[in-house]
Amino acid sequence: MTKTPQTLTIAGSDSGGGAGIQADLKTFQELGVYGTSVITAVTAQNTTGVAAIYPMSAESVREQLTAIGSDFEISALKTGMLFDPEIIKETAAAIQQFGWNKLVVDPVMIAKGGASLLQQEAVEALKIHLLPLAFLVTPNIPEAQALTGIAITDSASRHLAAQRILSMGAESVVIKGGHGKDPKYAEDYFLHSSGESVLYRSSRIATMQTHGTGCTFAAAVAAQLAKGEELQNAICTAKEFIQAALRVPLNIGSGHGPTNHAAYKADLAVKRGVDSIEVFR
Ligand SMILES: Nc1ncnc2c1ncn2[C@@H]1O[C@H](COP(=O)(O)OP(=O)(O)O)[C@@H](O)[C@H]1O
Ligand SMILES: Cc1ncc(COP(=O)(O)OP(=O)(O)O)c(N)n1
């Protein structure tokens, strides 16, 4: 009997349900994998912003990680909001202790409304302890700039930033383009330590319903990896998933609303050929 692939998200809770643990578990469910979770922080958050952050203690994070590691067979995992250096260290230690592979690190730093989801002193901890364990790192443009100190203004500086992130020990990186300036396209740039690069391009959707795009994208990659999909194809599926989720809005809340996690499976946009992803190798 084939078992459902088991996945893990290590991230913060978003009470509004659009990002964080909630987005990840919805994505896992939609893509047909079993989702487990370790909560690093509880945020009081809705579509208009983050009102408060309550980080979990390092001990409680360790206990959650141990509960998962001692019982589940995790085929792929992702990290999101890790908040402080202690939580990062516990996370890295558990990944090594339990031999978890196929780690997707979403280096979450700042929420759309401007709230800081990672302490300044945790950026170094992320680089030292977590990036060397990553199969894939998925920064958005501001996060890639913060990790590298390189201003991303064009494709050459984007490539340089990607190289710099790989030099921190990650096996591969995709710099997501949601924050890019191109009004026509949203481009995600992938670079592997072998030197292979891929550009994933979709049409840019004009919408306010973008809360949690990064979490959802990384969770979709992890889900596909757990099912055995090859990395570059998993990224393409994740891009299709987010394109569908943005294309068919839910119109929930008065601010940056959540994306529609059910749209991909419901075959509502991309899979009808309405909006396909272009891949440039
Ligand atoms: N308006 C948009 N139209 C199409 N794709 C988008 C849009 N905004 C973000 N994306 C896609 O969503 C994913 C997450 O990107 P991004 O928004 O940069 O991440 P984050 O949420 O971490 O800031 C990427 O695949 C990106 O290309
Ligand atoms: C609890 C929590 N985790 C992560 C985020 C940021 O998610 P992201 O996907 O980067 O989406 P936006 O903040 O850009 O909408 C969050 N807000 N809360």
From TrEMBL:
GO molecular function, one term: hydroxymethylpyrimidine kinase activity
Domain called Pyridoxamine kinase/Phosphomethylpyrimidine kinase: residue spans: 14-260
UniProt keyword Kinase, yes or no: yes
UniProt xrefs under SUPFAM superfamilies: Ribokinase-like (SSF53613)
Coiled coil: none
Alphabetical UniProt keywords: Kinase, Thiamine biosynthesis, Transferase
Organism superkingdom: Bacteria
Keyword Transferase: yes
Pfam families reported for this sequence: Phos_pyr_kin
CDD domains from the UniProt entry: HMPP_kinase
InterPro entries, per database record: HMP/HMP-P_kinase_dom (IPR004399), PM/HMP-P_kinase-1 (IPR013749), Ribokinase-like (IPR029056)
Family under the similarity heading: Belongs to the ThiD family.
Protein name: Hydroxymethylpyrimidine/phosphomethylpyrimidine kinase
Phylogenetic classification of the source organism: Bacteria, Bacillati, Bacillota, Bacilli, Bacillales
